[in-house]
């Protein structure tokens, strides 16, 4: 390469970097124009961002997410390897495993993944679970992060959260107001009840450990020490880009492993972005669900606003919740207490609903019903 060509390439790279920085600034400026519908808190929560899965495609979005989260009442700290890259991953396996150790040692109370993708399964055996057990945090992420959620519960007994990821949900020009609001209230322990439209769901009124997440990640952990053994639980799942027969195959795997039939309820989130072919001959997701209901005598609840769609509610994995349906609506009562000395769930002899939370009973007839335009509702703790 001659000197002139080398100089020209350096100039091009400099110009590309200037344009990238300009794009980042435009995103940050536009973020100022997008109101974040969150109450102003005087006590910011320390939040630690790490990248345990796929590499960030645009580091500028990380800066935008950090700014947004700050406005939402968090004091944000970014892991030193959050924008690292090794092949398709956010750094080497060792870097990403050590990020969890750095987060555990940090004073932050919330640890949030920047995005999903793929990669956590590769490092489950490298994570220092004892360190995490001795330094409990509120971990949150979704999709690939399901592997961590379930492994944390299996290895330490600690609960965690599935919900938004920093860059995926708060690093774009627009954010979903409800996703942001529910996330903040969940991290502050203010969210008590989630309600959502659920036409066609089975009748259910039960209490159990909430667990699940991305179906592909859940199924991949069967037979490993990283899948918690949950009986009488409330299992929920979602997935994206998986053909109905693949979803059915994963559910068959859970069925033959004896997992599905041990649950008190199965709650379906979003199953999106798949393509049918002529060979399917009418076979679609409703046929999968019909088949599922024929295999297990477990109530199935539809419509959970969770997955890879626009709205992604925050859910606690490993905590006791109540679930009930009536008149085309479903209700999740989020219980912050384990009630280890109480039965899983019991109906009152007088016909009253079971006790879910201290001072809170689920009286479905008394719950305000969302309007026809409102897909998801929530109720704060008083």
From TrEMBL:
Lineage: Bacteria, Pseudomonadati, Pseudomonadota, Betaproteobacteria, Burkholderiales
Listed Basic and acidic residues bias regions: 363-375
This protein's name: Muramoyltetrapeptide carboxypeptidase
Domain LD-carboxypeptidase C-terminal: 207-321
Gene Ontology annotations of biological process type: proteolysis
CDD domains linked to this entry: Peptidase_S66 (cd07025)
Family: Belongs to the peptidase S66 family.
Organism: Advenella faeciporci
Cross-referenced InterPro entries: Carboxypeptidase_A_C_sf, Class_I_gatase-like, LdcA_N, Peptidase_S66_N, Peptidase_S66C, S66_fam
Superkingdom classification of source: Bacteria
């Amino acid at each position: 390469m001659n000197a002139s060509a080398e100089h020209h390439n350096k100039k091009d790279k400099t110009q590309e970097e200037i344009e990238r920085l300009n794009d980042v600034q435009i995103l940050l400026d536009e973020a100022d124009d997008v109101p974040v519908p969150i109450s102003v808190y005087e006590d910011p929560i320390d939040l630690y961002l790490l990248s345990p899965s796929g590499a960030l495609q645009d580091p500028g979005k990380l800066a935008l997410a950090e700014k947004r989260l700050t406005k939402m009442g968090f004091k944000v700290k970014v892991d030193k390897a959050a924008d690292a890259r090794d092949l398709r991953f956010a750094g080497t396996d060792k870097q990403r495993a050590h990020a969890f150790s750095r987060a555990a040692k940090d004073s932050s109370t919330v640890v949030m993944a920047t995005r999903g993708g793929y990669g956590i399964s590769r490092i489950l055996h490298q994570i220092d679970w004892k360190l995490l057990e001795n330094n409990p945090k509120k971990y949150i992420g979704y999709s690939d992060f399901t592997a961590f959620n379930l492994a944390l519960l299996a290895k330490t007994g600690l609960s965690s959260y599935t919900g938004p990821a920093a860059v995926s949900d708060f690093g774009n020009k627009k954010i979903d107001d409800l996703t942001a609001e529910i996330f903040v209230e969940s991290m502050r322990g203010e969210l008590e009840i989630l309600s959502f439209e659920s036409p066609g769901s089975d009748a259910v009124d039960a209490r159990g450990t909430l667990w699940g997440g991305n179906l592909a990640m859940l199924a991949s952990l069967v037979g490993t020490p990283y899948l918690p053994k949950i009986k009488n639980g409330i299992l929920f799942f979602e997935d994206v880009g998986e053909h109905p027969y693949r979803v059915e195959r994963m559910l068959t795997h859970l069925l033959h492993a004896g997992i599905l039939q041990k649950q008190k309820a199965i709650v379906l989130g979003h199953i999106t972005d798949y393509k049918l072919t002529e060979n399917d001959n009418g076979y679609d997701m409703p046929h999968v669900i019909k088949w599922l209901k024929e295999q297990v005598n477990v109530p199935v609840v539809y419509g959970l606003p969770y997955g890879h769609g626009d709205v992604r509610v925050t859910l606690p994995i490993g905590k006791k919740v109540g679930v009930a349906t009536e008149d085309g609506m479903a209700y999740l009562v989020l219980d912050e207490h384990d009630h280890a000395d109480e039965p899983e769930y019991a109906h009152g002899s007088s016909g009253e609903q079971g006790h879910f939370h201290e001072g809170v009973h689920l009286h479905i007839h008394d719950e305000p019903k969302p309007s026809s335009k409102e897909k998801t509702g929530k109720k704060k703790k008083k």
